[in-house]
Amino acid sequence: MNGTKRASGRRIVLWRHGQTAWNLERRFQGSTDIELTDAGLAQARRSARLLAALRPDAIIASDLSRAAATASELATLTRLDVTHDAALRETYAGSWQGLTHEEILARYGEQYTAWKRGEPVRRGGGELETEVADRAAPVVLNHADKLPENGTLVVVSHGGTIRTTIGRLLGLEAHHWEGLGGLSNCCWSVLGEGARGWRLLEHNAGTLPEPVLGDDV
C-alpha cells in the first residue's frame, strides 16, 4: 500500500439541461444544437439556486448550447468557471435526429424495439450507448479525481449521456442501463463515493439530497 491518500466522500451531480422546443415536440435531439426555451432558462435558474447550496468545487458541461446555457446559470451563482467538453454531448443518432417519437416508431419500429430490449443498436446509424459511455465517463472520472475530500462535481449534460455514464460508473452491464429511467428537464442524479466505488444516491431529483438515515449507511 502506497502512502498516497485518495480523496474520499466525493459527489458527482449529473444535471440535465433545461427544456427546449424539441423536447416539447418530442423530437429526438441527439447532437443537434437546440437552444433553451424561456421556460427552460427559468428551470435552469431555479435549479441553479438549489445546486449552488451544495457548494460545488467544479462544473463541467457539454458544449451544446442547451447544456452550456444551463451550466452558465450555476456558474454565475458560484463564480466557478465551466469546462466545456464535446465528449459530454448527447448521443449522435443519425437519421433519428429531428424526428418525433411517432415518426421514429413508424419508420424505425424494429430498431426502436430492439433498443428498448437492451440490444446494442446504432439508432439511425449513430452511436452505440456503450460508445457514448466510452467518451463521457472518462471525462467525468478525470474531473472527479481532481476533487478535494468531500468535494462535489456538477456535470451538465443530456439525458441519454447521463444515463449511460451512470451505468458505466456503477459497473452495470449495458443492457441494464435502460432500467435507470430518464431524467426530466433540469433534474439531476447524484453519485456518492462508497467503499466499493460509486453509489447512486439520488435519481431524477429536483430537490437537494437528504442524508440516508437507518440501516443503509
From TrEMBL:
InterPro entries: His_Pase_superF_clade-1 (IPR013078), His_PPase_superfam (IPR029033), PG/BPGM_mutase_AS (IPR001345), PGM_Phosphatase (IPR050275). It holds the Pfam family His_Phos_1. One of its GO terms (molecular function) is hydrolase activity. Keywords: Hydrolase. The keyword DNA damage does not apply. Its EC number is 3.1.3.-. This is Histidine phosphatase family protein. It comes from Streptomyces bugieae.
